[in-house]
Write a structure and sequence with these properties.
The complex is a heterodimer of chains A (about 240) and B (about 70). Chain A has seven helices and no strands. With about 240 residues, chain A is an all-alpha fold. Chain A starts with 8 loop residues before the first helix and ends with a helix. Classes of the chains: A mainly alpha (about 240), B mainly alpha (about 70). Chains A and B meet through helix 2, helix 3 and helix 7 of A and helix 1 of B.
Chain lengths: ~240, ~70
């Protein structure tokens, strides 16, 4: 199926109905394997067992950023290319991105208490991540505030593109400012500083989280298309009644 | 360091992940059921999308044409 064919909501629904069960199955399998690997992974020589929180925290952080990146591409799709599924993607992805960012903040706090001695510090990485979470909430609120979906889509697209400024700030905050949060340790010039026995479970869990994210976004997009059909039918019903 | 050290923080992190992921899955599944139910209710009242109605009509027309052709051949 050509990518352009998916621009048609009916074809997208067919595609989503056929692929979601496979994605869900793959998510369950990779999660089971990832959790087994995290259980048998050794403790870190400095962090001890609390390194196991990293297997949740790091993938959540990556997906929070990835989701806003996806929403930014969708925002361009709404404003520039006027792709019929662009605002559907943006609206469906926002609550999922917010949930993963919240999970990143919560697991980070639970890791910070035993390792740093505090749940929270106002350092650049933590604050910029909190800003991302607030931006997600703002996008969700904007979708609910503006009644006309096409006007809401344009307003959300502008907010999303402005909010994308936060992505490089989050990524490079540990380089630009003196932070309590550690610097890049997985993807960095000179290779990862994490030992392979800990890095492998982390990558498997990141794969599982990414599969889960893809499944949830596709399912939420399907729901959004159906919601718009309901709205159309309800308008027809209201017109018939008047 | 023993694995049991800070087990309460580790357990709380995994519980939070289970809660958040579970809530997301429940939200998506319940929302899907609600939308499908609403569409079914509206269609039962006779309100269907134009494209769906058109495709149903064209299928009916094709069936009628095939029936007429069979009758002519007979």
């Amino acid at each position: 199926m050509a990518l352009l064919d998916l621009a048609n909501p009916s074809r997208f629904l067919k595609f989503a109905n056929s692929i979601i069960p496979w994605l869900a199955g793959a998510t369950v399998l990779v999660f089971a394997f990832g959790l087994e690997q995290t259980m048998i992974a050794p403790d870190d020589y400095q962090q001890g067992a609390t390194v196991k929180i990293m297997y949740l925290h790091v993938p959540s952080a990556w997906l929070g950023l990835l989701c806003w990146g996806l929403m930014s591409v969708a925002a361009l799709g709404t404003l520039v290319w006027r792709h019929p599924l662009a605002d559907v993607t943006a609206k469906a992805a926002a609550p999922i991105g917010a949930a993963f960012t919240l999970l990143c903040l919560v697991t980070g706090s639970l890791w910070g208490r035993p390792e740093w001695g505090t749940y929270w510090v106002w350092d650049a990485r933590l604050t910029s991540e909190l800003v991302l979470f607030l931006l997600y909430l703002a996008v969700i609120a904007l979708w609910r505030t503006v009644e006309d979906p096409s006007r809401a889509a344009r307003a959300v697209a502008v907010l999303t593109l402005v909010g994308a400024i936060d992505l490089p700030i989050i990524k490079f905050s540990v380089d630009w400012w003196n932070t309590l949060h550690q610097g890049a340790s997985v993807f960095r010039i000179g290779g990862s500083t994490i030992y392979p026995t800990i890095l492998l479970p982390l990558f498997i869990m990141a794969g599982a989280f990414t599969l889960l994210f893809a499944t949830l976004v596709l399912a939420a997009m399907r729901n959004e298309i159906l919601r718009r059909r309901v709205r159309t039918l309800q308008l027809m019903q209201a017109n018939a009644a008047s | 360091m023993e694995t049991t050290a800070h087990i309460d923080f580790i357990a709380a992190a995994y519980a939070a992940a289970t809660l958040v992921i579970g809530a997301l899955i429940a939200w998506v599944m319940l929302d899907y059921r609600a939308q499908v139910r609403k569409i079914a209710e509206l269609e039962m009242r006779g309100f269907t999308r134009r494209s769906a109605a058109d495709s149903a009509q064209s299928a009916q027309q094709a069936e009628e044409a095939a029936r007429l052709q069979t009758e002519e051949e007979a």
